[in-house]
Each structure stands twice: as C-alpha cells, then as structure tokens.
Amino acid sequence: MAQALYTHLDGKRILVAGAGVTGTACARALEKRGSLVTIVDEKVTALEGFKVINPAAVNFSNFDLLLVSPGWREDHPVVLAARTARIALINEVDLAWSFKPANQRWIALTGTNGKTTTVELAAAMLRSGGIAAVACGNVGTTVIETVESDEKYDILVLELSSFQLHWLEDAQFVSSAILNIAEDHVDWHGTFDAYAQAKISLLDKSMTAILNADDGEIVSRTTHWQGRKVFFSLDTPAPGEIGVVEELLVDRAFVADPQEAAMFSELVEVTPTVPHNVSNALAAAGLARTAGVSHEAIRTAIAEFTPGRHRIEQILERDGITWVNDSKATNPHAASASIMSALSVIWIAGGLAKGATMGELVDRIKSRVRVAILIGEDRELIASELSTRAPHIEIIRIDTPAEYSKGGDNNGLMESVIRTAKERAMSGDTVLLAPACASMDQFISYGDRGDRFRAAVEKVVRDGN
C-alpha cells in the first residue's frame, strides 16, 4: 500500500500533473499542508498562486512526488520520466482518503454508462434515510474538495471513472457497484481488456459488490472475486439478489429471510421508466441497503428523484413527435440503451468516437431507427456501419456551417440538424440526440451540445423560426 506517501507532506516538493479541476484542487490541499507545489500542464501557462511549467521543463531532481490527474496516461512523457527517476506517483482519490475523518465511510460506483444518475440517486437514498451523504468524484465536485469542505458527511458516494481507478491504490469502500462494461476509452487504455480490468479493480477495494447480472462482461469477470456479491437484474431475483417482479422493484438480498422479498418501489415510480434507468435504481438501492437505509426511505427517494439534464431529457412533444436530449450518451452502449427506449427514432449522432467501434450498436438498434442525421469528426464510422448493416436507414450528413464556431453565439449547426429532423419526422417518432460519441470536436462539452439541441428545438420546432 502507498499510504505512507501521503504522510509528512510538509516541505515535500510535489509536482502536480494537470491544471484542471482535479489538479488545482489537489494543489490547494497540498499547499495548505505545507507542500511546495508546482503544476505541469501542456496548455495552461499560469494559475494564480502556483508556478506552472511546461512538460519539457520538468526536471525530477527538483521533486519528491508526482501527483497524477486522472486523465494523464501511463505513456505521457512526464509520467514515464517520473518512473525512470524512481519518483513515487500519488493520486487525488487516495490523497482525499488520507485526509478524510476516521469515521467517514465511502461507497463507490463505476460503469460505462449511468454512473452520474446512479450515484446521485444513491446519495439521495442515504439522505432520505437520515444519513449525511453526498455524491462526488467524477460526478462534479472532486473527492478532495468534498473531504476538505466544511460539511461533515457520514458517507461519500464516489463516481469513479476508469482513469481514476487506473491510478487508485489505497482507498477502501464499504460497498461498490458496477453498472455495465462496454467499449469506451479504448484510446486511453489501449485495449478493451485493460479498460474492463480497470473497472473490475474496484472490487479489490470493496467489502460488498452490487453487480449487474444482465451484463455478461461483469458476470464473467467477477467469477473469482471472493467478496460478497449481490446481483441485480430486470428479471425475477433469486434468493440473495435484487430485481423486478411484475410491477415492483424487490429486494431478496438485504432481508431477514431471503426466501421472502421486500419492496423497494413500484416500477412506475422510477422516472423515466425505461429499462436502463430501472437497472440504475436497483444498483443505487443495493448500495443504500449496504449502509442500512430502510426500504421505505429508498422508495421515497426513488419517487422524488429526477435524473439530471442531458440524460433522456424530453424537450418537447408536438404533433405526436417527441424531442429528446440524451447528449450524455457519449459512447455506443449509452446510445443503444437510449434508442431502445423508443420505437421509431430519428437519430442524431456523431462526434469523437474515442476508439470505439459502431458495428454492434448498429446491429442492436437498426430496427428502431428510420433516419440517421450524422455530425462530427467520426461520423463516417457510423455511416459506414449503417450502410453495411442497415441499408434501409436513411443517412443524412450535416456539415458544420461556415459561420459556426465551437463556443460561439451562432447555433447554426444544431439548427440545421433540427430543421432536417423536422422535415423527416412523423407522428410517433422520437427525435433523439444520442450521439454515441464525445462532443469536443464541435462543442465545449456534452452539456453545451445538449443546450444547443434544446435551443434549436425551441427555436425551430416550438417557435417555428
């Protein structure tokens, strides 16, 4: 274990890799404890209160430790140089673990899709049960900022990305959940197997695991793990599992008699009532039960909870056509789940594929999609698979208008997309932004992409401009 690296930080010369949200929060926490902090970044050249250097200027004879922000890869020259110089590497989550109050417990969750919604719901369940809890990590507020805050939390619910899990060593969790494992971030990890192993590594730091029985990768990759496994699925649960019986979400794992069942909630209380969202609710409920939250408190939280923006967010329904923003669907697995929740889809897709392939996605959704409107740098990956595997689907490519620029006021790109969709859509259709790709080629973020979709729908469809 590397915990000794996080003690006696006063006077330590620490290089923080990355001047983003995580790196900056860590730099402030370290400086507060007397560390001599320098930040290295490829794009940022100045940050108030800190010396910032370019990677080419790094000399590890001047440093004792390297704190790696989660997005930095093993093959980055700064990381390679640190290892060559035998400089120890530390990370944000383990740093926060070393600072947390002794009585504070941690719960964790990972997966390819659904993480943010599920950690937020799990935290809401804990609060409903009278526990001071908050979601943090990849969800928004960093773990280190949460630990450093004035709020006194009993439990933190951490959303952990594959990047964070790659670097993680010390933190331990009362329980953890893995929602799904599908192809994503292959460009970062190198192979799908390395990505999947990073996800599964969370179990080695957990006492109890809440696992998706409907996901073959999870089932096969957790066979030899010896901790307590609680499977959830959309089917009738066996003793020791949680699942769905008729119109109820039920618990046969955290009950006095596993031959009996307790109710988490009615199916219709999950909003929106689509399969992957029900699955997420089951995972969150399992995590909440490991913390002792009652079934009644869990039901209250489910009934009151609404997912955040850009997640299957209905923008408008007019003339029998539903317009839905699922900009958070940034990989094929997420897009598939979104598309399969509708029957007839005008699909808006494209962007940066992050090394993902699109063949399995197209095979799964080809019976639901009528028209595909494609944008972005890797749109031809989708177009090629559609042409080969689903030639009946009309493909429309929308080029970036000359007057449009990323982050600018002009919304011509998305307005062109929406006008095209409006021309093709018929009563009964869902016009769905589920890009299967990241957004940064044409938008500031998935949130920016979703906001521009909403603005275009309101202008072109609602207001008729």
Automatic annotation (TrEMBL):
Domain Mur ligase central: residue ranges: 110-288
Pfam families for the chain: Mur_ligase_C (PF02875), Mur_ligase_M (PF08245)
UniProt-recorded Gene Ontology molecular function terms: ATP binding; UDP-N-acetylmuramoylalanine-D-glutamate ligase activity
GO CC entries: cytoplasm
Pathway linked to the protein: Cell wall biogenesis; peptidoglycan biosynthesis
Gene Ontology biological process terms, A to Z: cell division; peptidoglycan biosynthetic process; regulation of cell shape
Key words of the record: ATP-binding, Cytoplasm, Ligase, Nucleotide-binding
Domain Mur ligase C-terminal: 310-437
Annotated compartments: Cytoplasm
Protein name: Unannotated protein
Taxonomic path: unclassified sequences, metagenomes, ecological metagenomes
